[in-house]
Design brief:
This protein is 43% helix and 19% strand. It is of the alpha/beta class. It has a single domain, classed as Glutaredoxin, CATH 3.40.30.10. Strand 2 (42-47), helix 3 (52-64) and strand 3 (74-79) form a beta-alpha-beta unit. The radius of gyration is 17 Å and the shape is globular.
Length: 161
């Protein structure tokens, strides 16, 4: 009985630690630098915890991107949550939703300034995703939710399948 309790407690501790991550505060210049310096194809998903389509698509990204194991692809989740939600509410959201991918919080308040730096077509709506593969000069911007099937097609193009 004691062994079972210890095993269960250990499981919850390990699970909680696995999904606890420091969420770094970044500026748009940092995000652009991450895209420019990534040695592997990168997928950047811009989301907010209060955005229903964003929250709906996050599990698709979490499940699908790691399936490209033979081709390393990095997933970066860029939170556009309100300042009062950083870091506590954002970290709680990540734990509750078992998000294992890297999350950063964009510390910017003027979408008219930062959106065009990601893509000239971005009008500030979310979710949006940016995919870049420097090795093949591939760049794609999606200004809408990416359902799982569309996400897989986009990832195939990102890695050159």
């Amino acid at each position: 009985m004691t062994k079972n309790i210890i095993l269960i407690a250990t499981f919850f501790l390990v699970t909680n630690v696995a999904f606890s991550q420091p969420i770094k505060k970044v500026k748009i210049a940092d995000v652009l630098r991450m895209a420019d310096t990534s040695s592997v194809p990168i997928v950047m998903n811009f989301f907010a915890t209060w955005c229903k389509p964003c929250v709906q698509e996050l599990p698709w990204f979490e499940k699908t991107v790691p399936n490209y194991k033979g081709k390393e692809v990095k997933l970066l989740l860029v939170s556009l949550d309100y300042a009062e939600d950083y870091p506590k509410n954002l970290a709680s959201f990540a734990r509750k939703n078992n998000i294992a991918s890297q999350i950063v919080w964009l510390d910017e308040s003027d979408p008219n300034s930062f959106c065009p730096k990601i893509d000239k077509r971005w009008e500030g709506t979310i979710p949006v995703s940016l995919m870049i593969n420097k090795a093949t000069n591939f760049r794609a911007f999606f200004d809408h939710q990416l359902p799982e099937g569309q996400l897989k097609l986009a990832l195939d193009k990102l890695i050159g399948l």
